[in-house]
Amino acid sequence: MSEYSETVSWSSFLKSIASVSGDLSSFTAPPFILSPVSLSEFSQYWGAYQDLFLGVAQINKQNYEAYYPQIRSIKSPDVTRMLAVLQWYLATLKCQYTSRTQKGAFEKKPLNPFLGEVFVGKWENNESKKSDTIFLSEQVSHHPPVNAFAVFNEENNIQVQGYSQIKTSFSKTLKLNVKQQGHAILETNGNSFLITFPSLHLEGMLVAAPYVELEDTSYIQSSCGMIWRIEYSGKGYFSGQKNSFKANLYKDAKAMEKNEKPIFTVNGQWSGVSTIFDGNKEVLFSDQSKHQPQPLKVKPIENQHNLESRKAWDDVAKAIELGDMKLISQTKNKLENNQRELRKKEAKEKKPWENRWFKKVDVIKTKTEPDFEGDTINKLVALAELSGISIKNIQSGSKTGTKEHKKATTASHWSFVMDNWLNEKEITI
Ligand code: HCR
Questions:
Q1: What dihedral do alpha carbons 83, 89, 91, 94 form, nearest 10°?
Q2: Does ipTM surpass 0.90 in this model?
Q3: Bridge-partner residues for 166, per DSSP?
């Protein structure tokens, strides 16, 4: 329970959200529930655990048995890679969904990024530039809000890219439900992995301490055929603990659909400790407290471009920190009006906004044309086919057999264009 739970403002806030439906971005929240951080910063969590991320790239025939000495039945580098990808992925979940609610803090409404907003930085690994991991995030659409991201390390030959579009809705019981569209694709040394996103909801609203709980299922499909099915639950479903999950590794999607015996089962808390069944023996798989997220290095605001998130939102962020509602709306209105003017100007001049580092590719259309855009989009199509996951613009991880898949007609996806980044003249890291 937080200090706000018994205040009049929290109860009037609860009353006001009861009347909101659909898009949370159109809802004006009181200052104490506003975060000074833009949602465009959230995708940095994909790279935060540099040791685990780069570790995936270093697995080979010679060293794969040494990665998980406690697990005796690992038979190939592919299996070690699947385990390492899961371990990295679980760590990113911890960052994505719990990093703002540590030490008594609670989830707040992040700033809603404007079209073209970017957030960039790097994780420095040692002296050479090639060994730095670069992080790029770009708001590629405002209505609906879509954030695209890429995290890559040249020296280690590893990259994860993707995009997320969220849909929020409040239930009658004041639960905030969030569904995600989009995916992430991890590529390293000839291996690729399609990662779908779970649904989530906020718990703790009635006691003024909202936190994220994941729900349903997500998948990690590898180009080697193997697939992880990860099921999420809160307190009391699989166990008495919050942030619980159960992940089954199958040799392929067919074995998963037929509910065959998995190669491995991992159980536990994605924000804490998990164990793995090695034959009949249960051994430790991952302990999140043993890995620390590495902070992203971001340029000081004075050296940033006007499109860079922290510079663009600086006045609003300061007003939020002061808790000054009048100043918050003044500074926010200024930014939003500037954006409206820009859109009008673009419409008048018939020059629509051009995205910077990401390109929208229509998978259905391009599949029938010889100039199929971008290698990664090819991989997305191939991985989706292997897994039976829909390539259409519906909830992340939906299967091809569902009603939603049959009804949907579009399949456009955001893809990172490395050349655009290499030719970037204005934004620096
Ligand atoms: C739900 C959420 C906004 C969306 C955030 C997403 C789903 C965005 C994509 C990222 O890759 C993963 C991610 C992580 C965040 O945990 C999730 C946010 C948590 C809270 C925030 C709500 C909109 C906050 C609402 C606050 C209430 C009290 C009004």
A1: -140
A2: yes
A3: 180
CA–CA separation, 78 vs 192, rounded Å? 11
**Per-residue CA distances from 305 to 13, 117, 120, 293 (Å):** 36, 10, 11, 26
Using CA positions, which residue lies closest to atom 1 of ligand 1?
178
Of 21, 33, 166, 205, best ligand 1 pocket probe by most atoms within 8 Å of the beta carbon: 166
The finding on whether 93 has its CB within 6 A of some atom of ligand 1 is no
Does 113 contact ligand 1 (Cβ within 6 A)?
Answer: no
Mean pLDDT computed over every residue of the chain: 92
Contact predicate 397/342, CB 8 Å: no
Q: Among 176, 215, 270, 271, which residue has the most ligand 1 atoms within 8 Å of its CB, making it the best to mutate? A: 176
Q: Is the pLDDT of residue 340 over 90?
A: yes
Task: Using DSSP bridges, classify how beta strands 34-38 and 109-111 pair: parallel, antiparallel or unpaired.
Answer: parallel
Q: pLDDT for 53-72, tens place per residue?
A: 999 999 999 999 999 999 99
Length of the chain: 429
User: Which residue, among 139, 135, 187, has the nearest Cα to 160 in the 3D structure?
Assistant: 187
- 222-264 pLDDT, tens digit per residue, is 999 999 999 999 886 566 799 999 999 999 999 999 999 999 9
The residue assigned the tokens 């971008």 is 374
pLDDT tens digits, one per residue of 10-41: 888 887 777 665 566 666 678 888 999 999 99
Cα 45 to ligand 1 centroid, rounded to whole Å:
13
Nearest-CA residue for ligand 1 atom 16 is 97
**165-203: buried (b, 16+ CB within 10 Å) or exposed (e) per residue?**
bbbbebeeeeebebbbbbbbbbbbeebbbbbbbbbbbbb
pTM of this structure: 0.95
CA of 169 to the centre of ligand 1 (A): 12
Residues with Cβ within 8 Å of residue 230, at least 6 apart in sequence: 86, 198, 217, 218, 219, 220, 245, 246, 247
What SS3 class is residue 91? helix
For residue range 285-332, list pLDDT tens digits in order.
999 999 999 999 999 999 999 999 999 999 999 999 999 999 999 999
Cα gap 24→112, rounded to integer Å: 10
Give the pLDDT of residue 13: 80
